[in-house]
Specification:
By secondary structure, the chain is an alpha/beta fold. The protein has 6 helices and 10 strands. An 8-stranded mixed sheet has the order 2-3-5-4-7-8-9-10, sandwiched between helices. Strands 1-6 form a two-stranded antiparallel ribbon. The protein is globular.
Length: 232
């Protein structure tokens, strides 16, 4: 059964309307901007927790709620919610999130970083391709779904990918092809890491039991350092 997400705490303009999300501030009260993009489950506890962790690392972190408050608890519901999110709508909402963060009084950077997981990993790459110089760093974790762009020519962000060698949802061969395509089409700084793990290995609440703590710790540590180093 689809339920309402309890974590919305900010509202921002998006495509002539309003969108919602979860915003977490660092202890200092200010820092560089970071967008955290959800998996296909929605704005669930795990995404709130990830957003909080990045705020602890010094970022003004925003997780846009791409499903408008709905969350799923099994793969069938999640697939349905993802299928009901048109690519254009998701990209429009994320563009609004970029505008919101770059105008926020707590943000000290003139660009945003972006990190996303599963469906959100695809949208990270779409956002980087769409926003050009406004995104300084893009970190997709096993990016799949309708968010994955066809072209990376617009990417100006440095890209760090984290993909799984045993990923049934996005085979590692496709991830390697994606890495090569980004290098060829964007000319941006690109580094990809591959882990002896299944899909969604960084999600400690994954219902399929795919969480791999050692791989998750290493990947998130690499991602945090990468985003911090390129915040500007």
């Amino acid at each position: 059964m689809v339920e309402q997400a309890p974590f919305q705490n900010v509202t921002f303009p998006s495509g002539g309307g309003e969108a919602h999300g979860y915003l977490a501030l660092p202890e200092s009260g200010s820092g560089p901007a970071l967008i955290v993009i959800q998996e296909w489950w929605g704005l669930v506890d795990h995404i709130k927790d990830v957003t909080d962790r990045f705020a602890t690392a010094g970022f003004v972190a925003l997780a846009p709620d791409l499903y408008g408050g709905r969350v799923a608890h099994d793969g069938k519901e999640a697939a349905k919610l993802m299928s009901e999110l048109p690519e254009a709508k998701g990209a429009e909402m994320l563009a609004g999130a970029v505008d919101y963060l770059l105008q926020h009084e707590a943000v000290t950077s003139s660009t945003v970083g972006a990190i996303g997981f599963c469906m959100g990993g695809g949208f990270v790459l779409a956002l980087a391709a769409q926003q050009g110089e406004r995104v300084s760093a893009a970190v997709p974790f096993y990016g799949v779904g309708q968010g994955v762009p066809e072209s990376y020519a617009g990417v100006r962000a440095a890209v760090q990918g984290h993909y799984a060698e045993q990923d049934a949802s996005y085979p590692v061969e496709k991830a390697r092809e994606q890495e090569a395509q980004i290098r060829e089409q964007s000319g941006a700084e690109v580094e990809y890491f591959y882990y002896d793990a299944p899909h969604a290995f960084a999600n400690d609440s994954n219902p399929s039991g795919n969480y791999r703590p050692d791989a998750a710790k290493l990947a998130l540590s690499r991602a945090t350092e990468f985003l911090q180093a390129r915040a500007r």
